[in-house]
Amino acid sequence: MNMLRGLWFIAISLVLAAMIFQFMATAPATAKERAAFVIGNAQYLDGTSRPQSVADAAAVADMLRKIGFEVSERANLDRSAMKSAAEQFMSTLGDTRIVVLFYSGGAMQVQGRSYLLPVDASLSATTDLGSWATDLNSLLGPLSAMDRTVLAFLDIDRDNPLNLAPPPARPPEPSSSTMLIMYSAGPGQTVLVGPDRSSPFAAALLKHLPTPGLDLANVTQLIRADVVAATNRRQIPWDHNAGVSQLILVPVDRKP
Known about the structure:
The chain is of the alpha/beta class. It has a single domain, classed as Rossmann fold (3-Layer(aba) Sandwich), CATH 3.40.50.1460. It is 35% helix and 18% strand. It has helices at 2-26, 52-66, 79-91, 129-132, 136-143, 200-208, 216-230; strands spanning 34-40, 70-75, 98-104, 107-110, 113-116, 134-135, 149-155, 179-183, 238-242. The strands form two sheets. The protein has a six-stranded mixed beta sheet with strand order 2-1-3-7-8-9, with helices on both faces. The protein has a three-stranded antiparallel beta sheet with strand order 4-5-6. Helix 2 packs parallel to helix 6 (200-208).
């Protein structure tokens, strides 16, 4: 009898262990394991306006929360606030495994590098870009530390209308082996908006990123196809994917 009880206990234990393992394998990462930094800059002091940026950022932040991310959401940041917000976010990451960066707002591309503009940016042909703008690499480098997976979605212009020179001191390229950087437009292109003043890129991201069972390779392909169709090929998203093509953020048996 005692032997039968022992065998029954072992069998029950094995079944429970298998159920726990399956749940852990398919469950989305916890908020501690997933973090997102979302910025929407819309109202610039020089009169430039990107009215969709804050609303798009808010929608993306809400979507990321629904798929298990702890989100730091900021809007209309000036130069000082952008720096302090980035530092505060990075200080909370700890052992976070997956980090998403979403930025919608003013930006420029100079000699292949992207610079994010605070709302108080004062630019002219003689501006020292480094004193006003945030080099994207200064964010991606620290975010990718400790072997984190970094997913950056950037709804930004990639031109240089003032023909500015790059800053003399520039942070190094991020060296993470697991990183996705997706721009809403190709080099030299500017961001377009739809009839309702929304961003085709943000709309496509909101549609495809939370799709259960869809890996990032297919997510980026679908986003690109949607934006190309919505803009009649005037805006073509561009991405760099290193080691995350098969990453699935939402398991097929779970809905965001």
